């Protein structure tokens, strides 16, 4: 986990530097510089996504919520950076404004911030299994933005007792 935390620190530093650079240079930047800022911002977003996917898989269940909140904060920061660059880009390059509307709409729809749902918990009573399974499938399994390894981590974390974790995973795989 330490290498992941080190990488997270490096990426946060890179994000801060890029944000500072954009803030100081965006006013006088030409369209080439703005496209470079846009590209670097997208690269950082992808790097953070991969990093947090790894963190979510390896962290302890009790740490998961803290890491999720941290990722949401970073995503908000990157979104703000993207907005600053795109606003300036639209002013300097009207063609970009027209072509980016469709991609921006698709991006906004896929990055909509919904309230955090609590993952249902399973207490080990078989009579509660169907309700738990239905809620878990709807909130986690059918969420295409969550990797399979993260879904398994959520499943393990949703058991109130550690002894139910393997039972739940086996029961889930059977159903």
Explain what you see.
The protein has 175 residues and is mostly helical. It folds into 2 domains: 1-92; 126-173, no CATH class. The protein contains 7 helices and no strands. Helix 1 packs antiparallel against helix 2 (31-58), helix 2 packs antiparallel against helix 3 and helix 6 crosses helix 7 (162-174). It is elongated. The chain starts with a helix and ends with a helix.
What tags apply to this protein structure?
175 residues; mainly alpha; 2 domains; 77% helix; elongated
What is the compact description of this entry?
This protein has 175 residues and is mainly α. It has helices spanning 2-25, 31-58, 64-92, 94-110, 129-141, 148-157, 162-174. Mean pLDDT is 76; it is low at 96-102.
The number of helical runs is 7
Q: How much beta, percentage-wise?
A: under 5%
What's the domain count?
2
Summarize the main sheet: none
Rounded to the nearest angstrom, the radius of gyration is: 20 Å
| Helix/strand structural class | mainly alpha
User: What oligomeric arrangement do these chains adopt?
Assistant: single chain
Average pLDDT metric: 76
Q: What's the shape?
A: elongated
Instruction: Report the uncertain regions.
Output: 96-102
InterPro entries: DUF1759
Pfam families: DUF1759 (PF03564)
């Amino acid at each position: 986990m330490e290498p992941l935390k080190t990488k997270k620190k490096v990426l946060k530093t890179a994000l801060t530097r890029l944000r500072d650079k954009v803030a100081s240079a965006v006013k006088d930047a030409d369209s080439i510089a703005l496209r470079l800022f846009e590209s670097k911002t997208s690269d950082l977003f992808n790097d953070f996504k991969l990093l947090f996917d790894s963190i979510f898989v390896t962290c302890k269940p009790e740490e998961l919520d803290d890491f999720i909140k941290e990722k949401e904060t970073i995503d908000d920061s990157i979104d703000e950076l993207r907005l600053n660059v795109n606003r300036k880009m639209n002013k300097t390059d009207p063609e970009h404004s027209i072509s980016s509307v469709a991609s921006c709409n698709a991006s906004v729809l896929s990055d909509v911030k919904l309230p955090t749902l609590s993952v249902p918990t399973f207490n080990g009573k078989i009579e509660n299994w169907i309700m738990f399974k239905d809620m878990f499938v709807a909130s986690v399994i059918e969420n295409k933005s969550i990797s399979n390894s993260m879904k398994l981590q959520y499943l393990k974390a949703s058991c109130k007792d550690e002894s139910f974790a393997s039972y739940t995973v086996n029961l889930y795989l059977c159903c």
